[in-house]
Design a protein that fits this description.
Radius of gyration: 28 Å
Order of helices and strands: HHHEEEEE
Number of domains: 2
Helix content: 40-55%
Strand order of the largest sheet: 1-2-3-5-4
Number of strands: 5
Largest sheet: 5 strands, mixed, barrel
Strand content: 25-35%
Structural class: alpha+beta
Length: 141
């Protein structure tokens, strides 16, 4: 039975490597523990209990910690990283005339006011969202 548990564990490790989802690794650990129980002479019912209990314990208590440390959120890139940044109005923003530009990170962007208010040249604005290729901004307080 030791060989069966080792094969199950190996299969679960391979599945974890393929999926990278931190789900099957806990069951692979449980299978290794069951193989150890089999090696120590435990019966099949004890092996199954060891497998089930340790798999669930590892899944419940260590998976959240492991996910927190190993599966970090990807860093915002490109336009997502612009939200919240501060820019300067280079051409007055007038939503009714579809006019306005902002310099942000050394690049010039078309811009519109979030509230619809006109924003004068040289005002500091923060990016609220992005619509197509236009920054949606609000006046900085």
């Amino acid at each position: 039975m030791i060989v069966v548990w080792l094969v199950v564990s190996a299969a679960l490790i391979v599945a974890e490597i393929i999926s990278l989802g931190l789900t099957t690794i806990w069951f692979a650990i449980g299978a290794l523990a069951a193989a150890l129980a089999a090696f120590l002479g435990a019966g099949i019912s004890i092996q199954l209990i060891v497998f089930a209990v340790l798999s669930v314990v590892f899944l419940v208590f260590t998976a959240p910690v492991a996910r927190k440390h190993f599966m970090r959120q990807p860093e915002k890139t490109n336009v997502e990283g612009l939200i919240g940044k501060i820019g300067v109005v280079t051409d007055a923003i007038d939503n009714l005339k579809s006019e306005g530009t902002v310099i942000l990170n050394g690049q010039e962007w078309s811009a519109r006011s979030e509230s619809g208010e006109n924003i004068e040249k040289d005002c500091r604005v923060s990016v609220v969202s992005i619509s197509g290729v236009k920054l949606i901004v609000k006046r900085e307080a």
